[in-house]
Amino acid sequence: MIEANLTDNRLLASWTYQSSELLKIEHESLFHRHWLLVGHISQFRNPGDYQTMDVGGERSIVIRGQSGELRAFHNVCIHRGSRIVESSSGNCSGAIVCPFHGWTYHLDGRLKSVPRKAEFANLDIDTESLSSIECEIWCGFVFIRFKSVGHSLAEELAPVYDLVQPYKLTEVQPLGPASRSIIEANWKTFHDVDNEGYHVPAAHPSLQELYGRDYCDDFIGDIPLSTGTVDDYTARQWSVYHYKKILPEYSYLPHENRRLWMYISLFPNLVMFFYPEKVGFYASLPLAVDRTLIIEQEYGLLDTSRATQAVRYLSRRIDTLTGEEDKKLVDWMREAVLTSVYPRSSYGRLESGVIQFHNRLRAAIPLMRAETNPPNYMFREAEQSLNSGPPK
Ligand code: FES
Ligand SMILES: [Fe+2]
Question: More exposed terminus of the chain, fewer Cβ within 10 Å: N or C?
């Protein structure tokens, strides 16, 4: 039935934004089986520095060991399953102590000690350890993958590797704490708005004045790549006017990157951005079918010059304005899929990022090709085939 209803030239059907059953499969098939960005090596400077991330019932911790190696584990104590650390980031000096009963782990995940060990007759401390998760570093950025399937991160991002080399990504550090905000919409709605630049002239006056004249959405392989060059026209928007005026010539960047804003997306939930004065990312994590956590983080090279401080402030202001404008669009799209006349075919070539996203979703989860909400047994079958068959 699903195969007969192929809808690959249309946008996803409305039910896919409203189904909690589908969200379970999205977690399992997308968020647990694709690379997820956790942070940057600069956020793990010392042994014991850690970051956590939860998604779809799974909990992770990435932590730097005594030898300097970064490792990822399930943030699940092997005793009774408590979180071994509570905060989203911090430092465990010397050892990780589970807050429930005090089982203690070395920073490399091996069990170190157990209070009243004699009460656990069959426990061999020397052979027990936290459950590992795959962890890979790409150009200084730290990613995890809960289920090890498919390409390595390096293979997946190879098409854009050369593009990001000028930005000295292993040397950047956070420009402030990560921003975590919640939108009351399905996670895909956030990306549907974000995955095309056709709306920039109408919806984002600041971005339009900044780089709208040559803004372009493209792909390298199946990786979406968007670029816009900061032009020399006088802007009316205060932030854009001053940004254009103050933007320094960063001599370590090639000429073509010195006024370039570039965005690279990694399926399913990540956008990395590269501006002359800073880099960063934003990512979505679904909390419920109609509730999504958006995490954003900026990084930059150490540069205390007034000009760099000023353009970093101004580009943040432009991004904040743009984010507010997008929030409204996300809300309207959230409402749109609830109407009986939600249009699914009238998209143009400038919106190819949206249909590519939907086609990748349908390729990963064939159930999403259905025109109407499938019966429950089909979700159960899809879940079973994910857990038993070869990973998709
Ligand atoms: S659950 Fe961690 S020590 Fe008991
Ligand atoms: Fe936008």
Answer: N
Pocket lining: 114 vs ligand 1, CB cutoff 6 Å: no
Rounded-to-integer distance, Cα 142 and Cα 140, Å: 7
* Ligand 1 close to Cβ of residue 105 (< 6 A): no
202 and 314 part of one domain: yes
As a whole number of angstroms, the distance between CA 199 and CA 205 comes to 10
Tell me, yes or no, whether 382 lies in a domain: no
Q: 3-state DSSP helix/strand/coil percent for the chain, to nearest 5?
A: 35, 25, 40
User: Does residue 224 have a cis bond before it (omega within 30 degrees)?
Assistant: no
Q: DSSP secondary-structure letter at 35?
A: -
Q: Would you say the CB of residue 252 lies under 6 angstroms from ligand 1?
A: no
- CA of residue 199 to ligand 2 center, whole Å: 7
Cα 21–chain centre separation: 22
Pairwise CA distance, residues 78 & 86, whole Å: 16
What is the distance between the alpha carbons of residues 108 and 106, in angstroms, rounded to a whole number? 5
Give the H or E element holding residue 387: helix 376-388
> Which pLDDT score is estimated for 389?
56
Flag residues of the chain having pLDDT under 50. Answer: 1-7, 391-392
What is the DSSP secondary-structure string of 232-270?
-SPPSSHHHHHHHHH----TTS-GGGTTEEEEEEETTTE
* Domain match, 332 and 214 both: yes
Residue with tokens 């499938």: 374
Output the average pLDDT for the chain: 95
- How many angstroms separate the first and last alpha carbons of the chain? 20
